C-alpha cells in the first residue's frame, strides 16, 4: 500500500509550471526523502498533499483519500512545513495546547510530545526566547501531536546544532521503524542519506527518480582524489592526466579522477611520468550529493535558464 | 467550531495584545469623556462631518443616559481600535505562517474562520466591558468638576448601562468583522488598518461634506447610530438592519475567499 500516490499531478501558477504531470507512489512505513533543487516543486507537492493548494490537473491521494477531501486524512497526518510557525508571545505549551484543541486531542498528548522532543522544562517559556533549533523541535512536537500515521517534515534539522541533528536523526529513524511513514524534504543530503529508506528526486516539477535508497547507492562509483606535492604543479598534473585519457576534474583543492581502486597504481605512475610527486592519493566512493548533482545538474533550479524569481518552468 | 474557538481563544491569550486592546479602549474612554464634558459644559457644538466623534448636547448629558454617553461619542474611535486588533490577529496567521498549520490541522476552513470570529467576539465583549467600566469612573468626576448635573444618572441604571454596552458591543463587532474581511483579502494588518482608518477619517468625512450624498448609509454613520441607540437621522432599527447587512456581506466575502483561496504564504 502507498501512503501517497499522484497521477499526472500538475500545478501551474500563471505561466509557471511548478509540477508537471508528476506520477509517483510512496510506500508505507519508513523514512522517505524528498529532494530536488530550489524551485523543483517539493513545496508545491507538499502543499497539495496537505490541502493548502489545489492541483491544476491530475490526481493525488494521501492515505487512500483524495487531496480534494483533506478532512478525511487530516487527523492522521502531522506536518512541519517551511519552518516552525508559532505565536512568539505564547509559551511552547500554550502553542501546542492551541493545536491540541483544534485537533480535538487530549492535553496528555502535549506532555507526551514535549517529552519526545526534549522540551520538558522549557515548555512554559515564550517561544520568542527560543533559538531556531529549539523552535524546530517544537515544530516537530506539533507535527507529532496527533500521533499521526504519516509525518511530513520540511527541513526538520534546519537550525539544529550537530548534537541536535544527531538526536532528530535518531528520532526520525525510530518513528520510521515503528510503522509510521515519515516524508522528509531536505537540502541536507547527508541527512537524507543517513536516515531515509526511500528516495524521491524531482526537478522542474518532474520525477527524476523514485526508489529504495539502496538502489540509489548502487549508482555510486569509486573515484580517486589526488593532490600534487607542490600546489603549483596541480594545473600541469590535470593537463597531463587529461592528455593521457583520464577523466579528471578539479574539486576544491584536489583533482578528482573518475577511476576505481584498481587503477590507483596506474594513476600514480602517470603522475610520476609527468614528473610530479603526489602527496595524497585517496580512493573514495561517491556520496548521495554527487549522485544528486549528476541527476539534477549542477545549477540552482530557480536560477537555471534565467528563471530567477520563478518557481519551476515556464509554459 | 467549538474546537476552533477554543484553539483561537488560547492563541488570543497574549498579554501584550490584550493589554494593548483593553488599554486603548480605556485610554480613549478617558480621553473622550474628559474632552466631551469640557466641550458640552462650555456650550460648544461639533461641525458637521467631524471625524470619529459625535458629542451629546447638555440636555442629553444631564438625562439618565448621559452617564454612558461617552461610549457612543467615541464609538468610531473604539471601532478603529477593534478593526485594527481583529485585523492584526487575522493577518498575523499569514505573516507568521501559522495559517499553514491551522489549515492542515482543520481543512474545513469555514470552521477555522467561524472559530476565529466567535473568539474575537468574546474578546470584543471583554473590551466593551472595560470601556463601560472606565466610562463610569471617568465621567462622574469630570461631570462634577464641569458643573454638569448628574442627578438623573441613577435613574434606570441597569437599563441605561445595559443598552449602552449592548449597542457599543454590536457596533464594535461590525467594525471587527470589517477588519477581519480586509485582513483576509489583503493578508496584511497594515493594509487593513490603513484602509479602515483612512475610510473613517478621510473617505466618510469627505462624503458627508458633499451635499445630497447618502451619508446616512455610510458604515461609520450607521455604526455610530447603532452605538448611540439611533440618531436624529438614522433610526435604531434601520441602523441595526444596515449593520446586519454589512456583517453578512463581509462574512460571506471573507468566507468565500478564505475557503477557496490557496494558502501560499
Provide the fold topology.
The complex is a heterodimer of chains A (315) and B (265).
Chain A: E1 2-13, E2 16-27, E3 30-35, H1 42-49, E4 57-62, E5 65-66, E6 77-80, H2 92-102, H3 108-116, H4 132-144, E7 150-154, H5 162-177, E8 181-185, H6 189-195, E9 198-203, E10 206-212, H7 213-217, E11 222-228, H8 234-243, E12 248-251, E13 254-257, H9 264-273, E14 278-285, H10 288-296, E15 313-314
Parallel strand pairs in A: 3-8, 3-9, 6-7, 7-8
Antiparallel strand pairs in A: 1-2, 1-4, 2-15, 4-5, 9-10, 11-13, 11-14, 12-13
Helix pairs in contact in A: 2-3, 3-4
Chain B: H1 2-12, H2 15-41, H3 58-62, H4 69-73, H5 75-96, H6 98-105, H7 109-146, H8 157-186, H9 189-209, H10 219-228, H11 236-260
Look at the structure and give the mean pLDDT of chain B.
Answer: 87
The averaged pLDDT of chain A comes out at: 86
Task: Please work out how many helical segments of chain A DSSP would assign.
Answer: 10
Rg from Cα of chain B: 19 Å
Number of domains of chain B: 1
Describe the structure.
- The complex is a heterodimer of chains A (about 325) and B (about 260).
- Chain A has about 325 residues and is of the alpha/beta class.
- Chain A has two domains: about 1-215, Rossmann fold (3-Layer(aba) Sandwich); about 220-285, 2-Layer Sandwich (Alpha-Beta Plaits), CATH 3.30.70.
- Chain A is built from ten helices and 15 strands.
- Chain A has a six-stranded mixed beta sheet, sandwiched between helices. In chain A, strands 5-4-1-2-15 form a five-stranded antiparallel beta sheet, covered by helices on one side. Chain A has a four-stranded antiparallel beta sheet with strand order 12-13-11-14, covered by helices on one side.
- In chain A, α5 (about 160-175) links the parallel β7 (about 150-155) and β8 (about 180-185).
- In chain A, α2 packs across α3 (about 110-115) and α3 (about 110-115) crosses α4.
- The model of chain A is unreliable at about 305-310 (pLDDT under 50).
- The two termini of chain B are about 25 Å apart.
- Chain B has about 260 residues and is an all-alpha fold.
- Chain B has one domain.
- Chain B is globular and about 60 Å long.
- The chains are: A alpha/beta (about 325), B mainly alpha (about 260).
- The interface of A and B includes residues 70, 90, 97 and 102 of A.
